[in-house]
Specification:
The structure is a homotetramer.
Chain A: H1 2-28, H2 35-42, H3 46-49, H4 56-76, H5 85-102, H6 104-111, H7 116-122, H8 135-149, H9 157-177, H10 183-199
The structure holds a DNA duplex.
Chain lengths: 205, 205, 205, 205
Amino acid sequence: MRKKMDQEQRESIKSKILDATKTIVESEGFDAVSIRKVAKLAGYTEGNIYNYFDDKDSLVIALAQQGFQRIMKATMAEIEEGLSVEEEIIQRFIRYTKAAIEMPEYYKRMMLSDNPKILEITSVLNDKTKEEKKGIGMLENMIKKGVDTGEFIDIDPASIARIIWTANFGLTLRLIVEKKSDEKEIVKLVENQLRWICNGLRKEG
Amino acid sequence: MRKKMDQEQRESIKSKILDATKTIVESEGFDAVSIRKVAKLAGYTEGNIYNYFDDKDSLVIALAQQGFQRIMKATMAEIEEGLSVEEEIIQRFIRYTKAAIEMPEYYKRMMLSDNPKILEITSVLNDKTKEEKKGIGMLENMIKKGVDTGEFIDIDPASIARIIWTANFGLTLRLIVEKKSDEKEIVKLVENQLRWICNGLRKEG
Amino acid sequence: MRKKMDQEQRESIKSKILDATKTIVESEGFDAVSIRKVAKLAGYTEGNIYNYFDDKDSLVIALAQQGFQRIMKATMAEIEEGLSVEEEIIQRFIRYTKAAIEMPEYYKRMMLSDNPKILEITSVLNDKTKEEKKGIGMLENMIKKGVDTGEFIDIDPASIARIIWTANFGLTLRLIVEKKSDEKEIVKLVENQLRWICNGLRKEG
Amino acid sequence: MRKKMDQEQRESIKSKILDATKTIVESEGFDAVSIRKVAKLAGYTEGNIYNYFDDKDSLVIALAQQGFQRIMKATMAEIEEGLSVEEEIIQRFIRYTKAAIEMPEYYKRMMLSDNPKILEITSVLNDKTKEEKKGIGMLENMIKKGVDTGEFIDIDPASIARIIWTANFGLTLRLIVEKKSDEKEIVKLVENQLRWICNGLRKEG
DNA sequence: CATGAATGAGCGTTCATTCAT
DNA sequence: CATGAATGAACGCTCATTCAT
């Protein structure tokens, strides 16, 4: 019982520290994060941060992961039933892109990191994806379903998934870098690209 | 005569400084560049760097632009005659991607910078691209040519160009981030993606 | 108890830093103060100075104010009873001038600074002085008292105070700049000037 | 003939350098003067400045002297005839104060410098003033004339001159430091102070 | 657990001055 | 006489991290 409380409190403090870091990242970017600023904003002292995170890097990585998880959660959330596979793919990518654009710093930090621990989560071209939770895994499954149900022609889901995923990744990054924020424009661009690519997938194209 | 010598020597020193910077960028990344390190590596004193570059930013931007220009030069270089438009697009993107992968740090720095001066060069979604030298402009022109010659169906070159360009951009970045260096694999992935997208363009699809 | 100790120690270190700064100021002047020198002299590292003072300016201002306060304290200190107003004015200005000459760098720094925060303390011509603690306020009050008691003729204390104050200020600065240190000479010059100006104040001149 | 031309040109270049320095002093203050900036602004190169001035200090001193000379020239310039001595003293000090306020940086630099070379020019309390050109010398002479003509009572001109001069000096500096620029206010304050002091001088006070 | 002083290394930048050309 | 590259020292300041308390 005692131990559980402590554990809970520990997590709550970690959370507070992460929140402070988030505030800094959002207003000044990742490069502006410093233990000093985080500690001050979180209401703790510099030294104490090290009781919860090994070093600055761990803190930053933890935050980026948290941000990434939110993007993935938004993408994976339940969706209207009865959609065709194509429709679902498009709706999910719209969610994904919008969520990424809302947290651009985290998204860039995660998706462009070459830290091996992060790459385990974000890589798309490597290996056969094991964890199906990952975005690319989910996409692959959807395509497989499309093939199985006869909505799509018979192609290799893995390779098509990579084509689609990287295409949207490129568009999403451009939207972020070129600071596009008009929702309608974003939706239109994402949809355009995906529709075009899906054209070749449909059985009755 | 005298003056020209001086000018040449000046350029040669600027080059030496840029080279030193390049060495650092390539081994430690752009964020690790410091005037101190550059100066030491170039064999000059810190202060002297400022006789050649206004400030650190100018130096870094100059280097990134230099790198970017090399990538663009490789992409734009003359190409085998008699290729179909589709073939030329694919060949040029293969060159582009390979060149980017050879200078990954510069590519990322340029393509992900939100510095307005750099965005003028790199932006793809904004405005109607004026300068035809830019990659996206060239791509647009090629597509237009494909439409004009009847190789492609009648679509809007500008919007298709953006679909293609961003798709390849996403793939290129993933290749860089996930440190893919096997040339055959790179070529295969780039070609796969572009072929798929071009499927929908061909008149006799 | 613990906390008080810490507080005390903190103050003691601040003092040490201020003392080191003082040493530099006194031997080389305010312009020669640098964080590096201060830190070295105080026996700390440069960075640590910033745990006690926000920046160089704060340190320098703190020191100047400290010096100025000492001058004012000497001027304001209790004085022999039963003096006429004229006598008190003269005695106080002699104290003031002597104190200023003993801390010439601080005096100059404070009295010649155009930093708004400092001007709030040192300005003499501006506004109606609110805080009566200030030198000019005290002088004004003494003159008012002289008028009230009938020792002085009926004049405007504010404007006479400014005449007297600025006159002594000019003399004090000359004494400092021309490095006069003979006490007798100083006293004679200050007294001469004030006597002459007070001549016109006395009812029975 | 040749030599004279050279000499003239030399002076003209020195002048240009001094003018550039002046521009910097007036917009950024003396502390912001650097050989680099001066050279650039004057249209010469850094190294060449040293062909005309021994070092930065010489340049700065030369400029301050030049400024000071202008103030003195304005003060000494011919004046309306037929003025009483008191009136002339007051008029000249008004000129002096106004000129000083127009070149505040130079005035402060000169009058507060403890450089022996400059003190030879600016000192007021020291020695019996030899050169009668100096402000204090002129004032002394005017007072002597006032005594001789019977306008003033019989006092020691030297000591009264110092009383008056330092008083105005203090006021002038306060006007500069407190950034008073309203001409009417300036004239009023200067006149008030001098009138009050002169009260005691007049035979029929 | 928490503090926050202290370190030591680093940063970008500016400067007066020299000197080979 | 004039150039301007180069030096070497200094500047204010920030930082991640450690550790005695």
